[in-house]
Every structure is written in C-alpha cells, then in structure tokens.
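Entry 12.
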Amino acid sequence: MCNSQVIKHSNLTDLVGPSVQLVENESVPDQLFHGSLTWSQLRSGLSLHCSDCRELNNFTTQTAVDPHLALLIFLEGRSDVDFDDHRVSLGCRNAGNGRPIAEGVALALTEPVLFRRRARRGAQIRKVCVSLTPEWFETTGADYAVACKLAGLDRQHLATRHWQPSTRLLALVEQMLSPPDYNPLLQHLYLESRALEIASEAMSLASGQPAPTQRGLRPQEHQRIRRTLELLQSDTAADWSLERIAREVGVNVSTLQRQFQASQGMSLFEYQRRHKLLQAREALERQGVSVSHAAWQAGYSSAANFSTAFKRAFGLTPKQARARI
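Predicted 3D structure (tokens):
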C-alpha cells in the first residue's frame, strides 16, 4: 500500500474498484495521482479506502454507493464531494503555522446516492475511510440505526459529525498508510483488524465518549517512521546497523525502536526479519532459487534455521514454496 506510483486513468478501476468512473463530459487526463491509492473489500459490508497521494490534474470521479456508515480520518488535504445534489467539503483545517489539523468525520447514508468527488491539481490527500453497511452490522448482531446513534448521528440521510482524532487513532491511520510488507493473507488479516480498531475508536470519539489513554506518536515521529520504512523496503538499509538507521532518521537507537514498535506493532528487527523472509519466499516461488541461496538472501547462515523460521512465518517449508513454480 505504501508503494508510490503514478496512477493513470487506465489503472484507476484496478486500484479502487470497477464502479468508479471519470465524469464523461469532462476532458479526461491520462495521469491522475502520484502516490498510493487503494480500495479493499475486507469482508462483506466492510471496506477500506486509503489515499496517500498528490492529485496531478483537475477531474471528477463518480460512483453509485449504497447505504453505509462512513468513518473518515483526514491527516492532510480536503475532499470536495457531492452526494446526489448535496455538496460538502470534508477534511483538514490549517493551523496558524500552516500545518494541517487532522479531522475525523462520521457520515451516515440511509439511501443509495450518486457520489462525486472533484480532484484539484497539486492537492495532497492523506486519509483513510472505513465503510460499514447495514448488513455488516446485522452479521454482528447490531442494528444500523443504533450504530449511527452511537457514532453521534441521527437517522437523517447524510447526517454528519466532525470530531478531533485521538493520538491512538492517528497512529492506527498511519499504520494503514504504511502497513508491514506481509504476504497477501497476513496483509488482509492485518488490514481487517486495524480497520475494526479504527471503526471502534472513531465511533467512540464521534459519540463524545472518552477514548482510552494511550501513548501515541507525534506527526514528526510518524514522518520518521515513514522514512525508516522507505529505507527498509527499498533495501537501501539492508546491510545497515541499527545505529546507522537511527542516525539517518535523526534519533538514537532506543528512541527509534520505541517509536517503531508503537507505529508498526513489532520491533524493527522483527520487521527486517519478516521483510527478508518475504523476499526469500518470492525468490523461491518466482525464480526457483535453491533453499541454500534463499537462506543466504534472508540472512541465515544455517539452512536448517532458515527452514524453521520460514515455516513458522508462512506455514510451509522452503521446499514446498519452491515446488509451487
């Protein structure tokens, strides 16, 4: 999700779903966004939309949407949207120093609408949206109207409530925008668990109930972790010591370890080890390298120790992974 790319008109539907279209009566630019833009159906009635991108042109997208409760957290930027003929602007306000003030929005749709969103060239958007349908609430034994009321909303169509995200919620959103580099199954489980945490925390805040007190990270600390993830995922820091990584991002080792654990839910060492194991698995399954070569690539001097760690992580042996090609 955190891989940066130029998103073109031709691959928009692959990233955000086949129902999203550009408005036909507008000139259609080829390049739409630069960054990361995803939409995931995590479970029937539970979906996740993440944006961490810059808009490259002026254009309008539209899609038909069914009733649902939308919980949006903006870290940066605003969205100008229409629900049928009802126009609203959602997103961050600017502080006196020019920095964006994070904004939470709960919005209830009680009937189907045509949703339109207008992009503006140069706008930077960083946000996460968790959507929950009435059917999803029914599967959990809850009632949609009760859930909307819990989120501080009445039963009126397009009822909206704005609130200030907690530090814990901001940390969860940052994790969604820069998730660990898991395999597809673990990635899905990770995103679903975090989406439900976001929904729970967001509904608590929207209702005015006090959120649990937890240590969160400040915006500059999240930026530091994003830089650390870039170094690790690009393999720039593959052979670096913890001291060098910490020096590169401007803190000491103990501070980096504490902040990384708070952001990613695992230590930096655990993240590096899993990242290398994932690379080794890809080499086994796609390139057919030997188990000993994959062990070396993952940083193991012993093929036996590599096999043990590999099976613990993925539930199959390196030989079984290699046999898949």
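Annotation: The first helix runs from residue 12 to 16. Residues 270-322 form a domain with the Arc Repressor Mutant, subunit A fold (CATH 1.10.10.60).
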